[in-house]
Amino acid sequence: MAIIIKTESQIKLIRESCRLLAIVHKELEEFIRPGISTREIDIKGDSLIRKLGGIPNFLHYNGYPASICVSVNDEVVHGIPSKRRILEEGDIVSLDAGMIYKGYHSDEARTHAVGRISPEAQQLIDVTRESFFAGIKMAKAGNHLYDISNAVAEYIRPYGYGIVRDLVGHGVGTKLHEDPQIPNYAQFKRGPRLRPGMTLAVEPMINMGGAEVEWLDDNWTVVTEDGSLSAHYENTILITDGEPEILTRC
Ligand code: MF3
Ligand code: CO
C-alpha cells in the first residue's frame, strides 16, 4: 500500500477543490424536495460543478453514466439518476458527488430527508453522520488507519445497524481513488500509520437492517439485500499533527 503524502501546494489545491465541492452539496441539499426526479439533481449538480470551474469526476468513471450518484431509500450508493425516478415525501436520498479542480479530486456524500421522514429514518441518518465524527476523532498523525475503522464500528454497534463491508473509504488526490482502502468495520490489525499530508475520504455506509448488499442489473446501483434503508456520510479530510481538517465542509 503506497499512501501518498501531499505537499503544501498540492494540499492548497485539494483544499480548494473540496471547498468548492462543499458549496455544490449545500446547494443540492436546498434543491431536494418531493416531486423532483433524480435526473434533475444530476443536471443541477453537474452545472454547479462546472460553474465553479470544476469537472465532475464521477462522469464516465469506469463507465458510470452521470455526474452525481443519487441513491434512494434501500439504495446504498452509486444509484443512477433517472427522469422517471421521482422523490416522494418520506424518502431518504443519498447524494454522492465529487469534482476535479486544477487536477485535484474531492469527494463528499450526504443523505438527506425528502420532506417529513420517520424518526427511525432520521436516526439512521444522524447516527451515520455521528459515526464519521467518532471515526475521525482517531484520525491524527501517530495513530493508525484502522483506529478510524474501529471507532466507526464501535460507534455503530449499540444501534445494531449493518455496516456495509463491500465498499470502503479511500485516499484522494490526483486520482479519485488512491491507497489506502478505509474499511468502516472492525479490524484486527491497526493498519498503516497516519501521517500529516494524507488526504482521505472517510465514508461510512450504514444499513438499518443487515450489512449485506447486492448489485442491481445496471451493474452500478448497490442496494441492501433485505430492502432496509441505507445512509451515507462522507468527507475528504486532511491528516495533521492535531485535529484532522475536514476539507469538504462549508
Ligand atoms: N464517491 C464514490 C466512491 O468513493 C465514487 C463514485 S464513482 C461512480 O465510491 F462512478 F460511481 F460515480
Ligand atoms: Co468516496
Structure description:
- α3 runs antiparallel to α4 (145-156).
- The protein has helices spanning 8-31, 38-51, 119-136, 145-156, and strands at residues 55-56, 68-72, 75-77, 92-101, 104-113, 162-163, 169-171, 178-182, 199-202, 205-207, 213-215, 222-224, 230-232, 235-238, 245-246.
- The longest helix is centred in the first third of the chain and has 24 residues, at 8-31.
- It starts with 7 loop residues before the first helix and ends with a strand.
- The model has no long low-confidence stretch (mean pLDDT 98).
- The chain is globular.
- It has a 5-stranded antiparallel sheet, sandwiched between helices. Strands 1, 2, 4 and 5 form a 4-stranded antiparallel sheet that branches.
- Helices cover 27% and strands 25% of the residues.
- The chain is an alpha+beta fold and 250 residues long.
- Bound molecules: 2-amino-4-trifluoromethylsulfanyl-butyric acid and cobalt (II) ion (CO).
- Residues 58, 61-62, 64, 69, 78, 96, 98, 107 line the site of 2-amino-4-trifluoromethylsulfanyl-butyric acid.
